[in-house]
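Subject: complex prediction, re-run

Hi both,

The earlier run crashed halfway through, so I resubmitted it with identical inputs.
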Amino acid sequence: METNPRILLVEDDKNLGYILSEYLAMKGFSVTWAKDGPEALTLLQKNPYSLCILDVMLPSMDGFSVAEQIAASTVQVPYIFLTAKNLKIDKLKGFKLGCDDYIVKPVDEEELVARIKAVLKRTDNTLQQDPQQLLSLGRSTFHFHTQVLHIAGTDHKLTSKESEVLMLLLNHKNSLLDRETALKKIWGSNDYFNRRSMDVIISRLRKHLSDDGHVKITNIHGRGYMLQES
Amino acid sequence: METNPRILLVEDDKNLGYILSEYLAMKGFSVTWAKDGPEALTLLQKNPYSLCILDVMLPSMDGFSVAEQIAASTVQVPYIFLTAKNLKIDKLKGFKLGCDDYIVKPVDEEELVARIKAVLKRTDNTLQQDPQQLLSLGRSTFHFHTQVLHIAGTDHKLTSKESEVLMLLLNHKNSLLDRETALKKIWGSNDYFNRRSMDVIISRLRKHLSDDGHVKITNIHGRGYMLQES
DNA sequence: TTTATCGCTTAACCAAAGGTTAAAAGTGTT
DNA sequence: AACACTTTTAACCTTTGGTTAAGCGATAAA
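This time it finished cleanly. Structure:
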């Protein structure tokens, strides 16, 4: 059941892209090579990746923008920026966007691999997305990409919105998921109707989860929700 | 309200050590500065740290050895290497030893902070977003983030206002919390009605805390309140 | 000791937040 | 265009929690 970490490489330069994807594949990674930003985002929606390597200089949509889109979505994937520009301001911008490392070209392949591993070491067990088993105790698992919640021997097929909310709750397991944050991430804005929609989704999730006695969603009045595992 | 991430800086160079510890402290970290490896290891045994910054070139025991000792011990702390040597072989050695980042001198302080945060973001999930256990003796803990006061085996769910007041009291533990200060902080202004509201909240907090014989809120006439721990 | 102020507690009130269910509107598929 | 399914809107009801009110006790100054 051991699978290779899946890496999404976003690089428009044909030569560098080829070299890197070959090298990473040789080092035991499962590499997908996207040539531009939009392609990368589509792939990220459809498939799970453990890590994303983003070239900053890309045609049409630069790496920073791609990162922003990733951060704004519910898909959580660590990313490393790759760039020829050794400008401090860009570096800081990269980190501000939440990147996990920032590497300046020319790339030393061995160092790149070492840094990828360092990031994966930290993320793999804490963050989801690539491993499929998500949910908690007893007989429950949740598979984000198929949107199937498996409890006590039965499968619950969740809707997209249900899955997104559950995913966020899982990412904040046993701690508060701020209501406003969740709304901004999933619905894009925090208004009356979206709040009510979220209430409805929560209600439905509770119904699904009711078969698992070890998990429950509690409300913290005026703040948000918490998924509690016991 | 939140507590600062605790950083252990291991650096023998007096100048650099001073500059970095001052800078990091200014940036909101709680910094401890160890001058050599053995000192660092002793500190790590005795105190919790969120992250360790290791200079590679140290007297008596180099940073790599310190890292090996850390990895071999039960103490798990992420570490970043700091070195003047930009040798690829050293970098790879560092990552092989499990470091989370490897920074070459001269250090850009802003980049250092960005990289520290990037590491903490991944590793310190609990200490990072959850301000930790706060309350005092016997069996009491208070978790601000989830607003739960845990006393003698039972959970008391506090309201937002109760939590805010308790938090302020805890921040002034065993010393006076000025009434006017508290009112301005929590209610925005000190008027008759807000004072009455605060009275009610204090009363409710006392009821919650009554199960813990070692903590009580006392009034200092005309001044404010004090949370006394015994 | 008197008196004015300050503090404590309980209860009541009420607006806001949340829970649930159902109907309506939106979406995609055959 | 009929369908199955998802999401939003609506409606109705319950819970929550901050505030206000009122009465009494405590404290300190005169």
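Chain B touches chain A at residues 78, 88, 91-92, 95-96, 98-101, 108, 110-111, 114-115, 117-119, 121-123, 125, 129-130, 145-147, 159-160 (CB under 8 Å).

- K.
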